[in-house]
Amino acid sequence: MSSFSPSRRRFLSRTGAGLGSIALGSLLQRDLFGDVPPALRAVAPKAKSVIFFHMTGAPSQLDLFDEKPVLRKYDRQPAPESLFEGKRFSFLRGHPKLLGSPYQYHQHGKSGLSLSELLPHLGNVADEICLVKSVHTTEFNHGPAQLVFHTGVNRQGNPSLGSWTTYGLGSESENLPAYVVFLTGNTPGAGASLWKSGFLPSVHQGVQLRGEGDPVLFLNSPKNVTRDERRRTLDSIEALNRQYFESVGDPEIVTRIEQYEMAFRMQASVPELVDLSQEGVAMRELYGTGEFATQCLQARRLVERGVRFVELFHGDWDTHAAQKGRLASLTKEVDQPIAALIADLKQRGLLDQTLVVWGAEFGRTPMLQGEESPDKCGRDHQKDAFTVWMAGGGVKGGISYGATNDLGNEVAEDPVQVRDLHATMMHLLGIDHESLTYRYQGFDQRLTGVEEARVIGEILA
Amino acid sequence: MVPRRLCHFFWITFLLPAEREAAAVDFEKEIRPIFEARCLDCHDRETLKGGIGLETYYHAQLPTDAGEPLFVPGQPDHSVLLHVVKETDPEKRMPPKGKPLDPAEIDLLERWIGEGAVWPDDGWRPPKHWSYVVPQKSPLPGTGATLTAGREGNEIDAFIAARLAEHGLGFNVAADPARLLRRVHLDLTGLPPTVAEADAFLADPSFEHYVRIVDALLASPHFGEKWAVPWLDLARYADSEGYQRDAPRNMWPWRDWVIAALNSDLPFDQFTIEQLAGDLLPNATEAQKVATGFHCNTPLNLEAGTDPDEDHYKRVVDRVNTTGTIWLGSTIGCAQCHNHKYDPITTKEYYELSAFFNQAPPESRQQGMEMGMLAMVAIGPTLEVARTMEDIDAELKAEAEFEAVLAGIRGDLLKAVDQKFAKNPKARAALPKDVQAILAREDDMDLNQCRTLNAKLALKDRGMGRRLEEAEIMETRLKEQRKKEVRVMVELAQPRATFVAKRGDFLAKGEEVRPATPASLHPFGKDLPRNRLGLARWLVDPANPLVGRAHLNRIWIELFGQGLVTTPEDFGAQGEKPTHPELLDWLAATFVSDDGWSTKRAVRRIVLSATYRQSIVVNDKTAEVDPRNQLLWRHPGQRLGAEMIRDQALAISGLLDRRLFGVNVRPYQPATFWRKSAGASETYYVPSQGSDAHRRGVYTLWRRNAHYPSFANFDAPDRTACVVQRDVSNTPLQALTLLNDPVYVGMATAFGQRISKEGGATTEDRIGWAFRTALTRHPTEPERQLLLSAFETVRAASGSEEEAWREVATILLNLHETINRS
Questions:
Q1: Which among B450, B523, B578, B798 would be 20 to 30 A from B250, CA to CA?
Q2: What is the value of pTM for the model shown?
């Protein structure tokens, strides 16, 4: 059971009846990472783990990363017709006005990367960051666009990026799930589909680590049961399962015994993971306070322990109105912890092997939505141009790739499709996105789909 | 195709003679060599890049992936073929490598197209795939492996035995009676046998007795509850809309229709017709209309700002794909964006099929505002269904529960008011009149008034806000229950035009199409109407080569864990070939011709076979020959499904509420499991009270974005899309669920109490009874000893017999054998 390649794993999991479990058996093999067939490892891996931030609702790239002096100049002027004629928006109707960013931009670090004043902490790690300003997608409503961003397809029922990753690379942790998900604020619109495994074996679905109650659902034994008592019960279960195995000989029973052992280990390893008291005051101050800060620190602890894919959803960026106040408080929640995470990974020598990606389902329009007053106005959804950034894991730091036009409504240079981002992430993990396939519905399915996807070579370190 | 051939004819006959004097281009001598030299690297009949084939007449006549004809006879200017070779941009020009075609070659192509693009039919056609040939009953194979005396078998065994014999293998030993009894009970009803039922069978384990038991189980009302589950997965049945809003929806009367239809063994052809087009049947009954809820199960995007037309298109696509998967075993969805690469379905044919489903009235629209944004509402047709006595009982129960909760709120509010003003009666007297009026109603305050009171008096009870919200959810549900409604299909009065959506983009309208079925499949009867009813009848035409195979294969999966075709969602060219092709065909042909489409007869035949009645015990030597057990040399003993695991544990612990049908129930789950999502309604989960928390899993509320966690951990899909076969995983989360989910902890406690109450007089008796209640069979001596010692250890440590029995119960509910077929 030590060397199951993904193709073998696929083959077995497709045979139904219990054999799917062997996938998990192999998923827990510590040595699996170095045991992937040549087709998958055609590319030398840079990253071992991914930390994927999704700002649910879609932040305004124009107020955070993509400075537009021309837009500012024409603030509150009627938008040129080319911005809205014949285009579909969620809410904008009639003849909208332009909305210049009220925020100052500053250059940071040796690279001089320019970031909005709303992100002062991120500025401290600007030299690690690669802004991709020319991303575009196909959907302008949250649910479908989130699905595209995670699965490549605008309908539910397909595997997420994290599932594809663990399917391709397995796990390096024997005590923790390979794919961990955190949520802050509202649940993303497309819900758990964003971390489900779709048609891939269900062992590849993300496991949510929760702030309230059990950190993993049903992790803790009932209140009055001690660890020794639990051990005793498990010993009895195991003894009976072994008896049964001896009379029946089905290897699935052995896997079951192993899963009960893993469950028992998780009962210790997960609380240890979420117990931040060992981190020290300075470290916790670096990350700051709040639920999201805690999760960022836990994300680092997870990748340290070999977890393959960590995703953090941060909610409520859908600023159709009252953008000013909301952006200020939202950026305040995420800026310090994310910057701290990057600095912390760097200082531990983990940043090179951890790919950090920050993005959302789409961006926001240069056109003003709602009331005009600076406190009340907002921006609508924009699918044609937005910013995603990456750091670590083999990405060039302190650079900006791609550009939008003067008003920021369209890509002007080096367009990047969502599937190009996916292909690039896979590449950094050492996976050729065209050879990571799974046979379903008569066809070798891929994360990047049937149309061409491009690895963005220009941003690779 | 027909119009294009006419076109050929027209050009050749009437226009060409005038030009023929200038020596017409000779396809074989002048055109084919160009294709062979410059095009076939990418456009031969294997590669077909871009859906373009230049090797055979057949492929050359098909539209490209972009949906355009490759060339238009007589019109070089409108022919893509010519455009791409003339292209000046080398990035876009064909061929992409090497020098461009030279002017003489281009000229030849231009003239050839101008002259009508004559391409003599070379007669090549894609070979007919096995699944597109109507299944026939082949004669039963001769002696294969033989069954020993007393092991009655049937036709199925002849096919299985023949394949086993080819590999020098034979059947496994027969399953022992207790295990067989448990297996067949679970497979037919999803519930385990009782100890008394086991005793009766052990007293007479004859085949005749087994047959009587099978017939009784097939007649049990719980058969429909068990067999509905795989159909609900196919139909992506859920109680919420999906996508961002994921609001509650009322589809449970349709779920009840499925259970009732399975119980009455509605023949599968009729089962199909009623679900796809019950509304179009003459004098359609209420039940037939309810049945059409099948395709209303498609997710509906009610996120504010959604384009209703786009979502309509997505729903049509989902309906076409789901229909293709279930009744054609086909991956027809591939043709949404391009001609199917492997199976004979073009993009145009895909949209012709979609035209049948495009006649549903609008199901959502933008209406009103929501936080300054255009809100979406569901407006699809619904049907109010006559209520049964059970519905009324359930409503009365829900009403009593709501009243109890409301009474609690009222009492606590009034108490809080009394406390607040205890020392200051004057302030109380000075309260505004409307508040006074509410207070005066005392025990008659309704929920709204309670809410007002709580808000206006700023009372300090911190949990009250949440309690009020929960009561509001209960009240809303109660209102829904009083009016039993379900979504149904109806046909638009004015037909809606259907267009090819180029590359799957609904805004890129291509050719207009009319409802039609793919040319490569059996013909659409001349007398059939071109609507959903005609389509449904066409799908269950005995000439449809796929329907019986796909259905029987799914039944096989339900009973054996894997199909005779191991890719049940794809019977096409890319799917796996059947492991036992003759058996599959024999079963499918028998199903349609002899069994009158009876699902119960098909199930009965399989569970009576010696193949099914084999033991699961692994024979190491045989396992080396066939490790995946594809030849079925043993019963696979596969794991139970998510609902079955919970249903069984409820039955074992004595908690199961066996009532059938009704509004969905909400067993306990952690309060924080439903999180708030933007624009979503019902963010609180209010668990059902009383025995509703212990109904069978098929009745559990299915919220797509957060479905019941213990089911999710056992591979139940979220029902956002059609699923033919559930995954079967074996994970630590499953162990954690069975050990720690409060629902399972509660079941273990109840089972423990039941053991001491019902298990007999002595500890030995009780251990035997408990083991048999969980696993039907008697424990072996070592097993008995292990349980006894577990019992003794806990009793000694805790001094509590109750705890010791709970320990035994917990162990039994967690055994591998308990959650697997044995």
A1: B450
A2: 0.81
